[in-house]
Amino acid sequence: MAASSSTSILSPTTTIVHHHSSKLPFTSTSTTTTFTNNRPLTRLHVSTPTNKPANNNTTTSTKKPTSETVFFDGGAHYGDLAANLVLGFTLLWLPLTLAAVFRAFFLRYRFTNLRVTVISGLTGQDRSDFSYKVIKDVQVVPRFIGEWGDIIITLRDGTKVDLRSVPKFREIAKYCLSMAEKPAVVKEAGTKGF
Question: What pTM was estimated for this model as a whole?
Fold first, then answer.
């Protein structure tokens, strides 16, 4: 039994032709099956255009990394969820508990050597990416007793990206500043709390 596929990789429709040969006295048959790809397209929001070539006017050329190395990939800190679940028994704290549950289950942060990615939503299709080149400032707000915290990243166009309940938030903020080639002085703003 031999199978051959006659489509390009980017084609949304796939055609597979099966040739059956058997040792039975009647002739061989061939069937054609067509599959269509009905998956929804995921939009990727990028702050910086990726199709622009880099300026090579400088005498020192820097090599672009060939692979993407992950520094941190995870969701909200588990302590945020636990503290909010304990306090959720009061009706006053219930909305904050629901927000912590949604953060714990439907929000992921990924920091690599090329970009910062925030993946959210019930199906994980809401995705925001931005390069370290567009980072203007990074601030941290410690929560609880400093076990987790919020990272506020200000981009050059004035957009503020608020990353809530991030574990190892000080290390991640220093990493963002070092990748953005800014001085590694993390600004702590606000008061400590939940």
Answer: 0.61
